[in-house]
Each structure stands twice: as structure tokens, then as C-alpha cells.
Write a structure and sequence with these properties.
heterodimer, A: mainly alpha, two-stranded antiparallel sheet, 2% strand, B: mainly alpha, 13 helices, 0% strand, globular
């Protein structure tokens, strides 16, 4: 763990070498996710509510997904850029070092500019938390906390799957984008909006609704059962097949030789 | 839409390196207009090589379009009166946008051009008897067109046969279709002209990541890439529709669906021509200015 912190510090230092570049990139990231908020605002300015969810309530939803995603994207960057690591042989170096492979992939790449999205999420929370009409008792705060942290792990798992696929293809797989970037983009609305089939998919196949839709219902007082509050914890089971798949890929791995 | 992930172009850049010499040879042989045509042709054929990648990409776009339409459907059902377009027009808008993603979205940058500038290979281009602006233009247009061609065919084969209300429809009339084609060509040119401006700015900043993100974030939003412009609040929309960004995907997609028709379509196309001329002029001037002071570090 202490070694990992050291890696984090080194990465931060190296990225801060080009300060102007770093801040322009940070600002760019911020701007991109800001347009998403703006688009959301325009929609609710016109429609007021959708399926009974108000603007502020949807913002809570949006910010939790954005926060989990940006944390996952920052720290699982190694998995996100894994195809290029395989392609240029960087991964072979990791294999010969006396440290767990997954640990090294995590430590090798951390992209701090992605934290701009986190900042965005914090801003949105700052507006939405006091305005969404939720009485913030201890259980509600805990629910929100579970949503964000477990969401982080689900996205993390998705990045691992993405990386694992590239053991077989060497190339990145564009269709995985629909689950990572797509989930971030469309997770801005409660998943029920996209209809029953999509909701079933994100409940049973990729458990994004477990960290978003169901606990949100509890948070907003639409569901009283405490079960909904703890559903995010169930989503952690998703990590098991993710890492199993990664190990399977690792066993299948042949170096590209470059 | 910028979140749709940058496309996987790493492998392409490797293939392109070999083809550089081809381009050079073609350039040396041919007369002025012909050489740009051959740049276009070579790039076009080269980009057509990535058929499997395109097919995989289509599945993403298909899912993406569906998710977007589901969300629009929920809003439509919440309040049909507040919906600023016909739902079928929105369906056309979304599917066309997905089909022609590579044509109109700002975030398909030419990585070749970017590395050329940041790493100094631009010096080689300067000694060649080829106008750099024209070369950029042909190269970008050819790549965008070829990729769009690969992606739109499989997508159209599906979306024209979907069940209602998600089925894509034909344009209201043949005349409208012709206007769409004209507007789409202009739109592509405006997008390419704007991206050339961004490439020129790299001569000064040398910071591609941030500049790219900012430029594509702003322009794709104001071009209706995230949300069609009719969904913007009226006062904001009135301003945004005059900006050069509205001459990008906004115009052809709305003309196809019949949301903009008749005189409005013609004046919209006029505005596109205007912005194209302005952007090309600024781009050329800025490039010349940048090339005059360019310092290529040795090595």
C-alpha cells in the first residue's frame, strides 16, 4: 500500500511537469462534462420532470454516476489503456517483476486530469444535495456513500473486463464503450427511463442499477425497504467474474513480441 | 457525445506510416489539382481497410442510438406538447447522427497531423510542393468520408426496418433529400475547416490533449451533438443557431428529417457557405502566419 502511494506521488509529479498542459487538459475535461449538465438543464427547463423525477433528483443520480466513474477512470487508467500496453510490450515488463500483475497495472498509469470530472460531480452535488428535498438522516447519507463507492467498484470491474478482452484481441474493443462511457452518459437518468429491458439488463447482467436506480428510490423516499439501501453491496459480486475473466486472459496471453 | 470514447486509431497510424511514401510519390508525379485528388483517393482507400473495426464500431453506435431514443421517448411521453420536434424527426436525427458520426463529430481528429506538428515532421511537409492546408483538408475529408461510408451501410440496413416508433424514415421529398446531400457536404467542410484552425493553434500551444478536448467539447455541444438545437431554450437557441457550429451536423440532420424545409433550408445552406468561407480564410491566414515563425527543433 505504501508503495502504491509512492507510485501515485510519482505519477502526480510527472504529470505536473507540464503545468500548462495539465491544467488545459483538466479544464477541457471539466468543460466536456459541464456540457452534459447543461444539456440536462435544458431538458428539464422544457419538461420539468420525467417519470416523476425532478431536475434536482436526476442531478443526484447524474453526480453519483459521474463521481464513481471518474474515480474508476483515474485509478483504473492502466486497464483503460491496457490494449496499448499489450501492443507495445510494456506489459511484458510487468510480468517479470516480483509484484502482482494487477497491482502493477494499477500503479503504472494514473491520469489525474480525469479528476476534473470528479470536481464536476462535487459541484453538482453541492447544488443538488441541499435542493433535492431529501432529509439527510444518517441512513440516507450512508446510502449515498454506498452508491458512490460501490459504483466505483462496478466501473472498475468494467475496465478490468475491457482489459481482459484485449488479451484475446490485442486491440481495444469499441463496443465496451457502451458499458463504460455509455453507462456514464446514460446513467445521468435513472435507468428505469430506458424501459424495462434495459433495467433488467443493468440489474442482472451488469449491476449498474444496483448502485444507481434502486438505492436512489430509497434515497428519495419512494421505497421504504432497507433492502434497497444495501443493494449496492450486492453489486460487488460483479468483481468476481471480472477478475476471473482477467485471469483467464492472462493465462491465454502470448506476447506480441514488440 | 464526446464521451463515446476516442476511436481506436492507434493501429491505423502504424499502417499510415508506410503509406506516407506512396503519398509523396503520387504528389511528385501529378499536376496541382490532381495531386490533391490523389491524396484524397489514397487516404480514402487506406481508411477503407478497417472494415472489421468499423463493423464492431457500428454495434456500439446502434446501442448508443437506442439508449438515446429511449430517453427521448420517456420525455416525449412525459409531455408531448413540450417536445420541439416530431418524434419521428428526432428518430431520424439520432440514427443519422450515429450513422454519420465520423463525418460530423469534431472529436475524430487526425492524429497524423497532430503528431506532425508536435513532433516536427511538419518540416518535411513544408519543403514539398504541396499546399499544407489543402493537404490537411483532403486528408481529413477522405478519412471521415471513408469511415462514415463503412459504418452507415450496416446501420441503415437495420434502422430502416426497426419497429415503430424507432424506425428511421425517408426524407419527406426527393428535393429535400438533395438539400440534405448539399448541406451534409457543406457541413463536413465546415467541420474540417474548423478542425484545421485547431491544428494551427497547436503550433503555439503544443498541448494537443487539452485543446482537443476543449474544442470538441464546445463545438459538439453547440452543433447539437449532445442535444439537438431545437431542445435548447429559445433565447439561447436564437444565438446558437447563428454560430458556425450550427452549420455543422445541426443543419443536414434537421433538413433530412424535414424539421427545416423550404426557404429556411436554403437560407441555412447560405449560412453554411458563409461560415465555410470565413473559416477557410481565417485558417489559411493563420496557417501562413504560423508557418512563417515556425521553429523546428533539431533531432
Amino acid at each position: 500500500m505504501r508503495l502504491y502511494l509512492r507510485f501515485l506521488a510519482i505519477q502526480l509529479k510527472s504529470q505536473m511537469q507540464y503545468k500548462a498542459s495539465f491544467f488545459i487538459a483538466l479544464f477541457g475535461q471539466f468543460l466536456v462534462s459541464f456540457t452534459l449538465v447543461l444539456a440536462l438543464y435544458f431538458m428539464f427547463d422544457r419538461f420539468n420532470s420525467v417519470q416523476g423525477f425532478s431536475f434536482e433528483e436526476v442531478l443526484i443520480c447524474f453526480a453519483t454516476m459521474l463521481m464513481s466513474f471518474s474515480l474508476a477512470e483515474t485509478f483504473a487508467r492502466g486497464f483503460d489503456t491496457f490494449p496499448s500496453m499489450l501492443g507495445n510490450g510494456e506489459f511484458d515488463r510487468a510480468l517479470v517483476r516480483p509484484l502482482p500483475v494487477i497491482y502493477q497495472v494499477l500503479a503504472m498509469k494514473v491520469d489525474y486530469t480525469r479528476l476534473a470530472r470528479l470536481l464536476q460531480a462535487v459541484c453538482v452535488f453541492a447544488y443538488a444535495i441541499p435542493n433535492c428535498g431529501v432529509l439527510w438522516s444518517v441512513d440516507k447519507i450512508l446510502t449515498l456513500f454506498l452508491m458512490v463507492t460501490c459504483g466505483f467498484f462496478v466501473f472498475f470491474g468494467l475496465f478490468v473486463v475491457y482489459a481482459a478482452f484485449s488479451f484475446f484481441t490485442i486491440e481495444g474493443l469499441e463496443f465496451m464503450n457502451i458499458f463504460t462511457d455509455g453507462a456514464r452518459e446514460f446513467g445521468r437518468y435513472p435507468f428505469s427511463i430506458h424501459g424495462r429491458n434495459i433495467l433488467a439488463f443493468v440489474t442482472f447482467v451488469i449491476p449498474l442499477a444496483l448502485v444507481q436506480y434502486y438505492p436512489l428510490l430509497y434515497l428519495l423516499g419512494r421505497e421504504q425497504s432497507v433492502l434497497y439501501m444495501f443493494l449496492p453491496i450486492v453489486s460487488l459480486l460483479f468483481l468476481i467474474p471480472c477478475f476471473a475473466f482477467f485471469r483467464l486472459g492472462l493465462r491465454h496471453y502470448k506476447s506480441t513480441g514488440s | 457525445m464526446s464521451g463515446q470514447g476516442e476511436p481506436v486509431v492507434r493501429s491505423e497510424s502504424v499502417a499510415r506510416r508506410g503509406e506516407q511514401s506512396q503519398v509523396a510519390a503520387a504528389q511528385a508525379r501529378s499536376s496541382p489539382p490532381k495531386k490533391y485528388l490523389s491524396i484524397f483517393r489514397i487516404r480514402f482507400i487506406n481508411a477503407l481497410q478497417y472494415r472489421a473495426a468499423a463493423l464492431a464500431g457500428v454495434s456500439t453506435q446502434f446501442a448508443w442510438g437506442f439508449m438515446e431514443l429511449f430517453a427521448f421517448r420517456a420525455f416525449y411521453q412525459a409531455n408531448p406538447a413540450a417536445f420541439p420536434m416530431e418524434f419521428s424527426q428526432t428518430v431520424c436525427y439520432v440514427w443519422l447522427q450515429q450513422a454519420f458520426l465520423t463525418l460530423f463529430m469534431m472529436w475524430y481528429w487526425e492524429n497524423d497531423i497532430i503528431t506532425e506538428i508536435t513532433e516536427g515532421a511538419i518540416a518535411y511537409q513544408m519543403v514539398r510542393p504541396v499546399d499544407i492546408y489543402n493537404r490537411w483538408f483532403c486528408q481529413s475529408a477522405a478519412n471521415r468520408l471513408a469511415r462514415a461510408l463503412l459504418r452507415c451501410i450496416p446501420l441503415f440496413m437495420v434502422v430502416f426496418f426497426l419497429p415503430e416508433p424507432y424506425r428511421m424514415s425517408l426524407p419527406p421529398s426527393f428535393g429535400q433529400f438533395l438539400l440534405f446531400v448539399l448541406s451534409a457536404a457543406l457541413s463536413l467542410s465546415v467541420v474540417v475547416a474548423f478542425s484545421s484552425l485547431v491544428y494551427v493553434s497547436l503550433f503555439y500551444t503544443l498541448s494537443p490533449t487539452g485543446t482537443r478536448l476543449m474544442a470538441s467539447g464546445i463545438s459538439d455541444f453547440l452543433a447539437g451533438g449532445l442535444l439537438p438545437l431545437p431542445f435548447f431554450p429559445a433565447p439561447i437557441r436564437a444565438v446558437v443557431e447563428l454560430l458556425p457550429f450550427a452549420s455543422m451536423q445541426n443543419m443536414p440532420l434537421r433538413i433530412y428529417s424535414g424539421h427545416i424545409a423550404g426557404i429556411d433550408a436554403l437560407s441555412g445552406i447560405g449560412l453554411q457557405v458563409f461560415w465555410l468561407l470565413v473559416l477557410v480564410l481565417i485558417g489559411r491566414l493563420a496557417l501562413n502566419k504560423a508557418l512563417k515563425r515556425v521553429i523546428v527543433q533539431g533531432g
